[in-house]
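Give me the fold.
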Amino acid sequence: MNDDRGPDVDPQDGAARSPHASEAAGGRAARRPRSVDPRELGFTPRKPVPWLAPFLLVSTGIRTLLAMLFGAYLDKRELQHTFDTTIVRQVGPDGGLWLDYVADLGDGFNATYSVAYLLAQPELEVDGHRLPRAQTLVMGGDQVYPSAAFEAYEDRCKGPYQAALPVTPPERPTLFAVPGNHDWYDGLTAFLRLFVRSRDRHFGGWGTGQSRSYFAAELPAGWWLLGLDDQSGSYLDDPQLTYFDRVAERLGPQSRVILAVPAPTWVKAVDHPTAYDSVDYFVRTIVAPTGAQVRLLISGDLHHYARYAGPDRQLITCGGGGAYLYPTHQLPERIEVPPRDTLARRASASHPYELAGRYPDAARSRRYAWGIFPRLPMRNPGFTTLLGTLQTLLMLAMAGVASNPEGTAQRLFSVPLMAMLVVTMLAAAFFAKPPSSGGKRHARHWILGVGHGLAQIGLAAAGTWAWLALPFYDWPWPLPAAAAAVLYGPVIGLAASQVVAAYLLVAGAFGVNVNELFAGQGIEDAKAFLRLRIDPDGTLTIYPIAVDRVARDWRVNPDESPEASWLVPKQPLRPRLAEPPTTLT
């Protein structure tokens, strides 16, 4: 992609369909001149989110704070008791079913559309397996980044998927969606508008199948798909529990359940033991009394693929739908679910689960971590500019004090210098944080944070010493400040960004700022989704499909058939299995 307004494509002459045409009619598209103009596409392809951009950091922090403080007051789930209590049945023409799962998808166009393009193809051949397009698609949370604005949904999620599958194919696939924390940033308003409507609502070629922010679908051979909405990990509301009580009336000892949840709380409970409480409560009080078994728990939120195998079920994280890659090399090799230290509050038994598969593998994940040095300033120019500005101000204050320690300059600059030193130390100290919002700060967080702050102050002192050795500071004021802004700022900003990169790499080794280590890189590659097959006899096979490298260059599809994808990659995508298929019988 060349800029923020569209993908890198080769325009071609001829007629084509606009992927947004005649949506209400099931996607019967009108003929239009073939074009990649956003007015024809119906959306504007976007670059990946620069997660360390200063304004984005501030706005995301404010949204998160507001969601924490006022989430209960903005909770639209309590109002959904008036909505339809639909329980959908999903069965393929052969009595079985193909089902796709994708999560964390609404980020940069190249990664999001690469996955959407593969999901939309009539058939994929992956490592010798012929996998037809699924009749059911589940979006597992965080359908959009960074905010839940309707325009962001259009450009980063709905638009790419509608371009991938412009019209409804003969099998009439159905879409279900689980809301994640980013979907909740506007109180679920845009999510409900897009995914929770009348049954004839379409999301590209997929018809929406749910009537609330949570759902239940009856699948072949006694399998059930249940999707939960726990409002960013807070609790399960009464209308939702009442809805699933009705679903439970149709479950029995022969029923097997696939439970789709917004976050892999079985992993997060290692750092935040109560994280698994909502899921455990649901399984204990809704599913277990019926005699049914939860055989598969799936979630997104962490942007990688990981599978934990236990005596009773599989626990799978698959958040590789488009957002930046999250590391796998620090995943615990063994977990207890539920955590043992929470068993006193419940009747559940704790079981061990072993890490059975991950993508990317640990070695490749470690190599990705070292990419923070070149990628941090490249992906986040605003963050580097901010660092350069702060370092320049620190240098000018230090130079003012050092050049005339007894004079007017010392009195003028000493107070702001002390204020900036304190701010630098506090910002660095609080930047060091646990991997989850509910995790506790330990001594290592403070030690690493203070160490990072001292390193930034040391860089400012070294920069001041070097600057005073140059002739610029002796020029008449304000020429020294102008020279510092033009010459010193860019250089020291790049140096400061490398100090941050070194801090993130070291801190990441201790489990601190792991998310920022990878979010700062914005790695588009190493994406993944699941394709599941339920045979008529009840056998469930899970195919974890990995894409080592997403497409960067696109061209308009010369195929004018109605359901053909709007854009195709110039170089073919090469999906493969992240690990051999997992079979549940």
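DSSP finds 15 helices and 24 strands in the chain.
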